[in-house]
Amino acid sequence: MSQTTWGSRLLWATGVFTALAIAAGVWVIDSPAQQRLLRLDESRLQDLRSLEQAARSYRTAHEALPPDMARLRATPGLDLPLHDPAGGPDYRYRLLDDSHFELCALFATDSARQRRFGGLEADWAHPAGEHCFRRSIKNDED
């Protein structure tokens, strides 16, 4: 086999390998647009975690959950995230009973992929679209 033929085959093999590596990389890390949606959903989850913590703190201070988002927002010293980072609908809080409430948001992606790669706690799993997380606060007597 001549050096020219061998070099040509090596060049083709390198090109095919490079193309496959790029395709695999795009498949694994998603497109930039998809990455942006994932980051926005992570921001939404962080905001909901902050709202959950504020509701728990409110309950500790007032011995009851806040009746609505307005009351939670009126708590002095809190700067709560109330608005979707992408301009979507505002976050929603709903009191269910004395020890349960819901936090809702509109998500751009399904979190199944993040859960598969270990990047999301199970209690914050969500589908794409509107989703509410039910949260429970145990009473001190329980």
Quick recap of the structure?
48% of the residues lie in helices and 15% in strands. It contains 4 helices and 3 strands; from the N terminus they run αααββαβ.
What does this structure look like?
The protein has four helices and three strands, in the order αααββαβ. The chain has helices at residues 3-29, 32-62, 69-73, 112-116, and strands at residues 92-97, 100-107, 129-136. A hairpin with a 2-residue loop joins strand 1 and strand 2 (100-107). It is rod-shaped. The termini are far apart.
List keywords for this structure.
alpha+beta; 15% strand; rod-shaped
Radius of gyration: 24 Å
Mean pLDDT equals 86
Q: Ranges with pLDDT <50 over ≥5 residues?
A: none
Largest sheet: 3 strands, antiparallel
Percentage of residues assigned to helices: 40-55%
**How would you write the strand order of the largest sheet?**
1-2-3
Could you give the order of the helices and strands?
HHHEEHE
Bulk shape: rod-shaped
Strand content: 15-25%
Q: Provide the structure class.
A: alpha+beta
Number of helices: 4
Distance between the termini: 82 Å
| Number of separate strands | 3
Q: What is the strand and helix layout of this fold?
A:
Blueprint: H1 3-29, H2 32-62, H3 69-73, E1 92-97, E2 100-107, H4 112-116, E3 129-136
Antiparallel strand pairs: 1-2, 2-3
